[in-house]
Request: fold
Amino acid sequence: MNGITIYEFEALTTVDAGIASADGLHGIPARVYGWLEDQCLRAAEDGEAAWLRLTQRRGRRVVQVTSFVGVIRAPDGFQIEVLPKVGKAIDGGKVEARQLLIEMLSCLQGFRHVETNCAQISAARMPMLEVFIAEFLRTVEHLVKRGLRGDYSSRQGNLSALRGKLLMASHLRQNLFRADRFFTAHDEFLTDRPENRLVHAALRRALTLSASQSNQQLARELAFVFADVPVSTQQRVDFQHVRLDRGMGYYSDALAWSRIILEEDSPLTGTGRHSAPSLLFPMEAVFEAFVAKHLAKQLEGRLILKTQARSHHLVRHLEQNWFRLKPDLLIRNADRDVLVLDTKWKLVNGTEGNGTDKYGLSQNDFYQLQAYGQSYLDGSGDVILIYPKTGSFERPLPVFEFPRAAGLRLWVLPFCLRSRRMLVPDGAPFVGAFAGGRSVNAADAESAGISHSALTI
Reply:
């Protein structure tokens, strides 16, 4: 394959830089590196999301990817696959990291049409872009099996055979000396509708993106079914005119993929106007969606999980509210807020709390959670920072207390990506809010059917 696979925050330089690929530094063709540098500069000028940044390694200027994962595709077709950084500590390496990412992506609002099991099987033998294309082709194959939908359209024409209703006046005017023609008005069943045009265009685009022989073969076979359907030339307009009539629900997944492929745009990140990357996802948002989906299933009783709450502000000025406070997750009981949670996609070191590193935690995050606690919990209760569980962060940290807010406590808890559960300490006041909410030890692992080795990413 014409490409390379790396992890978050690793760096890229030219293959002729004389630096061996090690310590998170990888060599790529000079033309691709030049394009990436150009993307860095243009993104900085336009104020776009910093999915790349210029930095230095070993005295040389390099391009470093940030906390975006997915696929970067250069104009010449060279692909850079970026996987989550936790993949470095997974026994299965890049294959398992890719499978984990696919499962996490399926929790995103605009990406829930992924068939996780099928995609994870494909991930064992394909890079990420090919997995996405294979998923798109699977949805189109399902659509074709159900049948292309069309519309009856009223048409008039001078035909060689009698169809529909003969329009006598027009027939006599045009065919007075032609007995082989009939001017008729008839209904014609046409599959030329926006939905089919868009899927056909996405199939053609997939053919140019894919380097997989199996994907290309299936794309050609499916495109043959759309031979009578013109390719969409005004995709934005066609998307605006998409109308899924009754019985057309099976079109939805194929159209969702078509939008991603044709717009070269992930559900969460715009690509800008400079041929920027396709299919990149911010891991902060991916992790938040993953935690929200599985945490909601573990709540007890009448508790509900609300995402992106926005009912409070930090200050009020001249009768106006300023600086909206938006915690990632909020747990409510009826009309009362009982727990505030914020997810952070960062690797915490649970063994380095006494030194200057302070577990690698951010002081700004603590200020943020304190403000959430004061506003949503009236300064009394529990706020939680959730980080991914790793080999260096396997258990909850001891509780943090705010000296000037005696009733407010802050907890730093790991979320196990494999068991899909947050690890809650036994003595926490909120342990009863979660089904079986406890710190996971060997006994817990056995009861949950999880091997002890699986507790660590």
